Amino acid sequence: MTLASPTYQGLINDAAQQLHETSDTPRIDAEVLLQHIVQRNMAWIIAYGDTIATPQHIREYYIVIEQRRQGQPVAYLIGYRDFWTLTLAVSPAVLIPRPDTEVLVENALARLPENTPLNILDMGTGSGAIALSLGKERPLAQVLATDLMPDALQIARANAQSNQVDNVTFLLSNWCENIPLHAQFDLIASNPPYIEPDDEHLQQGDLRFEPTTALIATDHGLADLNTIVEGCRHYLKPNGWLILEHGYNQADALAKKMRQCGFSDIQLHTDLNNLPRCTSARLPHQH
Question: What does this protein do (predicted)?
C-alpha cells in the first residue's frame, strides 16, 4: 500500500503507475480491477472519485493489483470477460475469449440464414464463447459444443445459463471422437490450439497463465487444425461450412489442407489488426 488516505481516483492513479511495466493498458486495468473490488461501475467511481476509499477496499485492491503486476490476466482476476453480446465466466481452466475471435463469429453468422432451423457444431468450446454467441444470434438453431476438458464444459454450461442461451448442448469429446455418427451440421466452427510449442509468445502476457492444452499444437501448430479438417467432412451437410481460427502465418497451409480434403470457396478473413485470423470453406458434396 503506497498511499496514506487514498481516494478512489487516487487508487486508480497509483495502480496505473504500478502496472505501467506489466500491462499495455495500465489505466484500463486499474479501473476494471477497482470496479470489481468495489462492485460498482465506472460512473460511480467517477462520481465518488474524491471519496476516501474504505480500508477493506484498499487492502483488497492492492492484492489484485499485485497479482496483475505479476502478470495474471485481468479476466482471471475478475472472473469474467465480455465477448460478442455475452458476459462469460472464465477461469484458468479455459482460454480467455479474444475480440479477434468475434471475427469468426461474424463470418459464421454471415453463412447462417436467420429464422431457419440449423445445426451448428463448435469444437473445443472452452468458455462457450463461439457456441453461445451463435446460439444467441440464431435462436432456431441447435448448437452442439464439445470440449476435451470437463472443467471447461462446466464453465461453458454455467455461461449458457447465465446468458440465457438454451439451444446449446454440451458434449465431452476430443474433436470428432464422441460426436454421434449420424449427426449432420450446416456449419462447424472451431478455435483450436494453433501455437507452436516453442513459440516465444507463450512466455509473454496472458498466455503464460492460460491452459496450454488450449494453446499448443504440434506440427508447426497445425496438428489440431488438420485433424478437424479431415474429421469434420463426415459431419457436414452438402454445402455445409467449416470456419476455423488459426495463426497469422498458417493460412496457406490450412487452405492447402482444405483443398486436399475436397473443400471449395475457401475464404480468408482478417482480424482487427488486419492479420489473417480465420478461414471459411464449403464442402460441396459428401465424402
Answer: Methylates the class 1 translation termination release factors RF1/PrfA and RF2/PrfB on the glutamine residue of the universally conserved GGQ motif.
Residue 41 pLDDT more than 90?
yes
175 annotated as a binding-site residue: yes
Same domain, 155 and 18: no
Q: Is 194 annotated as a binding residue?
A: yes
Answer yes or no: is 84 within a domain: no
Model's pTM, two decimal places?
A: 0.92
47 and 183 co-located in one domain: no
Q: What CATH number did the domain enclosing 136 receive?
A: 3.40.50.150
**Residue 50 in marked binding region:** no
**Is 221 annotated as a binding-site member?**
no
Q: Number of helices (H) and strands (E) in the chain: give both, helices first.
A: 10, 9
**Residue 276 annotated as part of some ligand binding site:** no
pLDDT at site 286: 54
Rounded to an integer, the average pLDDT of 218-242 is 95
Q: Does residue 76 lie within any of the structural domains?
A: no
pLDDT in tens, 272-287: 899 999 999 999 975 4
124 assigned ligand-binding residue: yes
Report the Cα–Cα distance between both ends of the chain, in Å, rounded.
64
Which pLDDT score is estimated for 203? 87
Q: Residue 61, annotated ligand binder?
A: no
126 is in an annotated binding site: yes
